[in-house]
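FORM 12-B: Structure-to-Sequence Request
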């Protein structure tokens, strides 16, 4: 609830205007039955046409006030609820941006999506409906009962009795439905997870002929949700029937008692309709409120779930240190080529000359990034994934990491990007402990090509601009040329060619090359290629690495690879096994000294050359 108050706080004026409009609606609504009674008692029975007309006009004004208030109130409610939804959604999204990989895993992707979309929709709907339907209830109940008592004490007492029964019933129904709604939110999480898995993994499901198995799994998850929804609907239906039944009984009882009272000359005839109207009004509002009240526990759960995301302290926190101006970034921005500079655009070599590269180093040892006896353990793991990692990536040099699957290669890249923090030892960038830096500063200086080349829906150009918002067409052409992505010029829309979500309308190799081009749009001090050449044929792989050389000559390059050909000419090769460095050196040195490397090399290269 704290989150809701915090979110609503900036909209005090809007809240006040909404309440004022709703109050106008309630006042007009409550005024009408009393006037109607007066009209019947004094106008109809005595035939006073003037009184009927004047009372009718006053009723018309009251109705207009009520309708205007309702219209304005509902509009303002909708606005308020939309603002609340938008602000909570933004807060959840902003908070999640600061999460490390393990922070995300704590919630899970499915749950994060449910929280951001469904949970906030529930909150938004509840804020709107509860403001419209629940806030006026106390005023309607108290004022309606007081007015009914004023008209006739016995009729008022009967009405109070009926209203009390309806209220008790409403409270019981809400209490029974609330836990089911809470469960339903968990079922939505599960549906999300299973659905995502099925949609993303549809090809695997088909390839293994597991359609029936998955249908069963989906069926079970959907059934759980459906069963809970049916239970809630039963309660709703019961509430509905019982409330209408009570309303009718109340009307009959009030008519019967009213008739007797009028017969005994204890009450005027018009008062019957007024009391009946008050009773109907009160019960109608209570009925509406109880339906909305059923949503409240669910909205509270949703609020708690959003608050969990917002209040979670990210495990990676920015330090207050700063890096000196980026070598690559600064140099790049000074010499950005313009479209006019484009000589032989797209032709690799010529364009390459126009492209900036990082300026010579200011760091005497040329070290850009360094692992100093670093180790790392995942939060949910029993033992370290990386042990005593100790090496440096130097400007102008290519460092390569090779090792079997699961040996910890990608984890090293993630530590450099501060997607995780080392749990032992130190990782440095430009002599500064990564923990002392802001994540933004650090990542500004690193260009990263992830193992899974992910492209965003949009166009080729919009994806390239992800690496540099102000990129010119010449720069894009150049980056594509270096990344051996000439296939783009074969597409009918060239740079404006559409890219589907995840880049699924391109082949694996094309995606990798576009992801490399995107990274090259950034003028970085450290380029990390995490298994980024794996889907390329040997010829393209070699051509790409050749084109990369001048591009990154003043930056440090870290290549993670499984293929020995890719790293053969690296200045330094790190051999990783089970998270430990087994060897360090050039290819020739490692062939002499490192058994693990020799095994890898021999298994991939004929004769172990
Ligand atoms: N989020 C995680 N939680 C727990 N353990 C993890 C997590 N991510 C990776 N691991 C474990 O850490 C180890 C190293 O993973 P990593 O992805 O760094 O290996 P890799 O050498 O890059 O493998 P590959 O070449 O197959 O990509 C693996 O054993 C993996 O199971």
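FORM 12-B RESPONSE
SEQUENCE OUT:
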């Amino acid at each position: 609830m704290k989150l809701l108050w915090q979110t609503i706080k900036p909209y005090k004026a809007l809240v006040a205007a909404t309440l004022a409009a709703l109050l106008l609606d309630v006042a007009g609504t409550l005024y009408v039955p009393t006037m109607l009674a007066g009209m019947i008692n004094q106008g109809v029975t005595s035939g006073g046409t003037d009184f009927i007309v004047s009372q009718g006009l006053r009723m018309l004004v009251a109705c207009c006030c009520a309708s205007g208030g309702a219209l304005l109130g509902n509009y303002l409610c909708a606005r308020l609820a939309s603002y609340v939804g938008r602000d909570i959604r933004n807060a959840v999204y902003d908070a999640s941006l600061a999460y490390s990989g393990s922070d995300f895993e704590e919630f899970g992707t499915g749950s994060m999506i449910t929280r951001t979309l469904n949970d906030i929709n529930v909150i938004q709907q509840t804020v709107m409906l509860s403001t419209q339907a629940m806030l006026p209830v106390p005023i309607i109940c108290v004022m309606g009962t007081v007015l009914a008592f004023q008209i006739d004490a016995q009729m008022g007492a009967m009405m109070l009795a009926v209203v009390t029964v309806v209220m008790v019933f409403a409270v019981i129904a809400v209490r029974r439905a609330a836990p089911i709604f809470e469960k339903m939110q968990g079922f939505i999480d599960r549906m999300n997870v299973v659905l995502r898995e099925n949609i993303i993994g549809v090809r695997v499901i088909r390839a293994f002929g597991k359609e029936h198995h998955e249908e069963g799994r989906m069926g079970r998850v959907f059934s759980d949700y459906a069963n809970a929804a049916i239970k809630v609907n039963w309660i709703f239906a019961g509430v509905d029937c019982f409330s209408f039944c009570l309303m009718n009984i109340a009307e009959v009882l009030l008519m019967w008692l009213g008739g007797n009272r009028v017969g005994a000359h204890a009450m005027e005839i018009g008062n019957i309709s007024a009391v009946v109207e008050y009773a109907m009004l009160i019960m109608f509002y209570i009925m509406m409120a109880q339906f909305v009240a059923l949503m409240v526990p669910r909205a509270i759960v949703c609020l708690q779930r959003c608050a969990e995301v917002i209040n979670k302290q990210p495990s990676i926190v920015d330090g207050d240190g700063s890096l000196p101006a980026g070598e690559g970034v600064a140099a790049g921005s000074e010499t950005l080529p313009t479209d006019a500079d484009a000589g032989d655009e797209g032709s690799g070599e010529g364009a390459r000359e126009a492209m900036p590269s990082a300026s010579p180093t200011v760091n005497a040892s040329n070290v850009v990034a360094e692992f100093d006896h670093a180790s790392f353990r995942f939060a949910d793991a029993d033992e370290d994934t990386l042990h005593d990692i100790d090496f440096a990536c130097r400007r102008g040099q290519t460092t390569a990491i090779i090792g079997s699957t699961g040996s910890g290669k990608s984890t090293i890249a993630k530590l450099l990007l501060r997607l995780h923090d080392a749990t032992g030892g130190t990782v440095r960038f430009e002599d500064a402990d990564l923990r002392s830096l802001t994540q933004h500063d650090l990542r500004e200086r690193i260009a990263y090509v992830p193992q899974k080349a992910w492209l965003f829906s949009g166009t080729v150009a919009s994806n390239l601009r992800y690496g540099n918002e102000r990129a010119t067409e010449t720069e894009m052409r150049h980056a594509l040329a270096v990344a051996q992505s000439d296939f783009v010029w074969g597409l009918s829309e060239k740079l404006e060619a559409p890219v589907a979500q995840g880049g699924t309308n391109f082949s694996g190799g094309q995606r990798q090359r576009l992801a490399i081009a995107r990274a090259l749009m950034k003028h970085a001090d450290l380029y990390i290629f995490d298994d980024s050449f794996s889907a390329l044929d040997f010829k393209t792989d070699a051509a790409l690495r050749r084109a990369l050389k001048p591009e990154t000559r003043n930056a440090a390059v870290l290549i993670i690879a499984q293929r020995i050909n890719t790293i053969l000419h690296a200045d330094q090769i790190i051999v990783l096994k089970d998270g430990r460095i087994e060897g360090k050196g050039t290819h020739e040195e490692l062939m002499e000294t490192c058994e693990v490397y020799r095994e890898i090399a021999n298994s991939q290269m004929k004769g172990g050359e």
